[in-house]
Amino acid sequence: MASDLEKATTEAAGCSDVYNSPTTYQRLVNYIFGPEKKEVNPSSTTSTASAPDTVEHDLELEEELNNVPGSVTDINMGLSKQSRWRRLFFPQLNKHSLYVYGSVTALQNECARQEAAGVCIIHPFSPIRNYYIMFMVFITFINLIAIPMELAFLEGEHTEGFHLMIFNLCSDTLFLLDIAINFRMGVITEDSEMVLLDPKLIACHYLKSWFVLDLISAFPVDYVILIVKELEEDQSTTTYTASKLVRIVLFARIFSLIRLLRVSRLVRFFSEWEQVANSNMEAVRLFIRIICLFAMILLLCHWNGCIQYFIPSLQDFPEDCWVVRENLTHAPWIEKYSFGVFRALSHMIGVGYGSADPPTGEAELWVVMTSMVSGALMYTMMVANVAAMMTNVDAASKAYRSKFNHLEDYMSYRKLPKNLRSRISTYYQARYQGKWFDEREILNVLSESLKVEILGNLCSDLVKTVPMFQGRDINFINAVLLKLQCEVFQEGDIIIREKAAGDRMFFIEHGRVMVKTEQNFCTELADGDYFGEICLLTKCRRTASVQALTLCNLFSLSAEKFNEVLQEFPEIKEEMLSTASQRLWTLQDFEDQKQTPLPENGTKIKETSTLGV
Ligand code: CMP
């Protein structure tokens, strides 16, 4: 597979510079398969792609991919010979398509499948599909604004009415064309696992799903109205025929409301957009949902405003209707529209603003009731969506606050002393720094190499400062990093108590500690030092107490993990034993000096070691 890939990349016309470059090639494969799947690439045995660079590499690679003049189709299918526009119908080589298909080869196969499916099938991940959806969203939105507006306010307005008529005729044609295009538009299946490219399957799927609704909403009402109007003007009709035509136009006007069903297209486009957009990016989905929500709310207000005016206009403005009461019968359409929207909002939000009198007629009553219900629905929809969004936004900070509140409740429930409470709060803030993550759980779902990369980043200071890690075999460093546990101690905390049993040792990332014994031996350790190892090596009790002198960021290594590492790297064991032995000598010396007065020449010779090393 890899050799095919290499061959394909070298054969690629126009893209060869990028794909032939061994570093880019290597990075491409790393990018797709991740560092642990290097065996896919024949040259990966010599690969030195350093893990911490991966993110930068991804970004650079993405940039390079974007600069490639064609797409993956050029690489494998030889489409570069064909006209440029055809490329727009095929999926592109980018981060998202790689995420969906998993590898360049799979993407190439997809292109081949599309090629086999026949002419003019638009792939759901192709650029043209994105442009088309954006264009149709725009047209649908304008339609959904213009249709009720025209129906309610612009009937008889010559200039605006004429422009709208032209626009409506164009969009009627477009929506009919859209139905035809949908028969050639690849479909992503419900589970997002497959893309249907066979024209028969696409047609079947479309006929079963949106076809009927699309067909009804694309009914070219404007053509009908235009023809009827032409007849009305041209014929020197009898009174009977004229009244019949007027009724037909009125019916056509109301019937034209079915075009509002085009809102279904908006819903579909948004959901497809969400589906095609990088589905593993919460931010993208959130953004799309917010746009969708706002668009729907705007539409609802607009429609409601139009209905407010449309119903009295259908009844030929009865005397007690709000339009007559506000003296708007002959006002310009923009004034009527503004009042209509104002009334709609007053009902929907439930704010009576003086001028909104109680409804008089039966029809007005129903309009107001509909407004109120739609307003309540809008409100619910908004609250539900915003709440859902807020739950997803900054979940770590929320978890932190909730845990902190829980902790505070616990402290007051247990009636802990003030001083202890403040120490606990300070610890919590220093340890989690405003965000709560279950690091163990997060790391457990990642591969070993990624874990090492993350830990390498987290413990970079430690690796730099601890002399034990300097110039060491990378395997040793990785083995230790994978086993470390982050711990924070505050000033004054007793980290180790003398004569206690020990279960772990510590590396100091930041901070200072005091090592002291009952015999008043004192020494300080700081960044890069380690302590607590003697107990693990000798399996005896702690030889000294260790107290934090400042806020300390430490990494601990449990006894079990410590033994595992030492078993694997005996040379480190030797080194640790020698340091431990020196430390014990120092302690012993100090004790001896305290107990025995110094001989006259001031020297004392050590005979035994408690370590037995
Ligand atoms: P342990 O005995 O497990 O717990 C106390 C720790 O203090 C001990 O391991 C050493 O890591 C550390 N320690 C003991 N003596 C000295 C010393 N002389 N200098 C530095 N650190 C010491």
TrEMBL record:
One of its GO terms (biological process) is regulation of membrane depolarization. It is found in: Cell membrane. It is a multi-pass membrane protein. Keywords: Cell membrane, Ion channel, Ion transport, Membrane, Potassium, Potassium channel, Potassium transport, Transmembrane, Transmembrane helix, Transport. Residues 594-613 are annotated as: Disordered. The keyword Ribonucleoprotein does not apply. This is Potassium/sodium hyperpolarization-activated cyclic nucleotide-gated channel 1-like. GO terms for cellular component: axon; dendrite; HCN channel complex. Residues 468-583 form the Cyclic nucleotide-binding domain. The chain crosses the membrane at residues 131-149, 161-181, 286-311, 365-388. PANTHER family: I[[H]] CHANNEL, ISOFORM E (PTHR45689), POTASSIUM_SODIUM HYPERPOLARIZATION-ACTIVATED CYCLIC NUCLEOTIDE-GATED CHANNEL 2-LIKE (PTHR45689:SF8). It comes from Acipenser oxyrinchus oxyrinchus. The gene is HCN4. GO terms for molecular function: voltage-gated potassium channel activity.
